């Protein structure tokens, strides 16, 4: 089995110019920011990175830019899923040629997959595009409409797909996540995918997590992990509530556009989202800054700083202690 994904993996945003074209010159600064914030890897062209809204050529360009900037510093996983299986195979082959550490894929989602066997068939064809690269199936039923039981799928897919090493699990069935982790004596690397429920994932064995808000709040989530590992559940719960509050605030706006605005407040070039995702107006950007301040989020939501601001406990450099 390949080395498991551990710690925080940021689902990276795709920087864009105001006209919606790619701004690949902004990628190195984004990688520098993520490395400083303590993430261990990046997940490229996923839901957060608007992969499904990019052309095939653009997806290759984004993957190359991030892999080049992150090589030797952060682990790189490229999401290659597409409604065309042939296109997904080509993107997988490209990820392998570019030196990605792993690749991942959602299934075709316009014509819904209704049976476990069809999901295995589709995943096998995609995974075959990069046979030398570790493959993580991406389970996100809220977007794909695929509700196949993941324990059954991983059992069958593990017999069919030689390079299947794990699963990116973005759903709220904690019991199913746990069952996938324990399948075949822990054969698969099952990675947690719900930021505001990280503590729940840790409680059932998650050791790696992929998420959007790790782009802007990685120190907070590192402190959650540290508190959990020390069995300081009171602090871990308190910090997780900060994540819940942050996600709720961002969800008052178009979520990904709002998170990109926070990156811009950090001095990074993130740009707008591409249609059909909405971007924030100038008035909305101004209101978001006010909301971050008035909610108390901005007091601790700063790049490279510790997550907490001593409400009940002191937190410094990811290590918590009682006041």
Structural features, described:
The protein starts with 6 loop residues before the first strand and ends with a strand. The longest helix has 18 residues, at 233-250. The protein has helices at residues 27-37, 56-70, 85-98, 116-127, 141-144, 150-160, 174-182, 198-203, 214-229, 233-250, 255-265, 282-295, 297-300, and strands at 7-11, 41-44, 75-79, 102-105, 135-139, 164-169, 189-192, 208-211, 313-316, 319-322. The protein is an alpha/beta fold and 323 residues long. It is globular and about 50 Å long. It is built from 13 helices and ten strands. The protein has a domain at 7-231: Aldolase class I (TIM Barrel), CATH 3.20.20.70.
Provide keyphrases for this structure.
disordered C terminus, Schiff_base-form_aldolases_CS, N-acetylneuraminate lyase, N-acetylneuraminate lyase activity, two-stranded antiparallel ribbon, 14% strand, 8-stranded parallel beta sheet, alpha/beta, TIM Barrel, schiff base, cytoplasm, 323 residues
Task: Summarize the structure in short.
GO terms for molecular function: N-acetylneuraminate lyase activity. With 323 residues, the protein is of the alpha/beta class. The chain has helices at 27-37, 56-70, 85-98, 116-127, 141-144, 150-160, 174-182, 198-203, 214-229, 233-250, 255-265, 282-295, 297-300, and strands at residues 7-11, 41-44, 75-79, 102-105, 135-139, 164-169, 189-192, 208-211, 313-316, 319-322.
Averaged pLDDT: 93
The CATH superfamily name of the domain at 7-231 is: Aldolase class I
**Largest sheet strand order:** 7-6-5-4-3-2-1-8
Radius of gyration: 19 Å
Count of alpha/pi helices: 13
Describe the sheet with the most strands. Answer: 8 strands, parallel
By oligomeric state, this entry counts as single chain
Number of strands: 10
CATH top level assignment of the domain at 7-231: Alpha Beta
* CATH architecture name of the domain at 7-231: Alpha-Beta Barrel
Helix-residue proportion: 40-55%
Would you identify the regions where 5 or more consecutive residues have pLDDT less than 50?
Answer: 306-323
Q: Approximately what portion of the residues adopt beta-strand conformation? A: 5-15%
| Class of secondary structure makeup | alpha/beta
CATH topology name of the domain at 7-231, in short, is: TIM Barrel
From the N-terminal CA to the C-terminal CA, the straight-line distance is: 43 Å
């Amino acid at each position: 089995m390949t080395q498991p994904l551990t710690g925080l993996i940021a689902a990276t945003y795709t920087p864009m110019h105001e006209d919606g074209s790619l701004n690949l010159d902004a990628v190195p600064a984004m990688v520098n920011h993520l490395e400083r914030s303590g993430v261990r890897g990046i997940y490229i062209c996923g839901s957060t990175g608007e992969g499904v809204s990019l052309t095939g050529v653009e997806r290759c360009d984004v993957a190359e830019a991030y892999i080049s900037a992150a090589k030797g510093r952060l682990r790189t996983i490229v999401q290659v899923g597409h409604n065309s299986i042939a296109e997904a195979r080509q993107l997988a082959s490209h990820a392998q040629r570019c030196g990605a550490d792993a690749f991942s894929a959602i299934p075709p989602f316009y014509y819904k997959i209704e049976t476990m066997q069809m999901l295995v068939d589709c995943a096998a064809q995609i995974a075959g595009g990069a046979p030398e690269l570790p493959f993580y199936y991406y389970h996100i039923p809220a977007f794909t409409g695929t509700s196949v039981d993941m324990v059954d799928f991983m059992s069958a897919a593990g017999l069919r797909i030689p390079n299947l090493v794990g699963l990116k699990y973005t759903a709220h069935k904690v019991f199913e996540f746990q069952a996938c982790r324990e399948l075949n004596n822990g054969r698969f690397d099952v990675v947690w995918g719900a930021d505001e429920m990280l503590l729940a994932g840790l409680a059932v064995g998650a050791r790696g997590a992929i998420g959007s808000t790790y782009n802007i709040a990685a120190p907070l989530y590192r402190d959650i992990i540290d508190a959990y590992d020390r069995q300081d559940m009171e602090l871990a719960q308190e910090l997780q509530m900060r994540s819940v509050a942050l996600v709720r605030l961002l969800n008052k706006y178009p979520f990904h556009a709002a998170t990109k605005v926070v990156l811009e407040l950090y001095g990074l070039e993130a740009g707008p989202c591409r249609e059909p995702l909405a971007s924030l107006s100038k008035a909305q950007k101004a209101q978001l800054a006010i909301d971050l301040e008035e909610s108390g989020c901005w007091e601790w939501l700063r790049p490279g700083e510790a997550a907490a601001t001593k409400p009940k406990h002191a937190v410094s450099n990811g290590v918590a202690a009682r006041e």
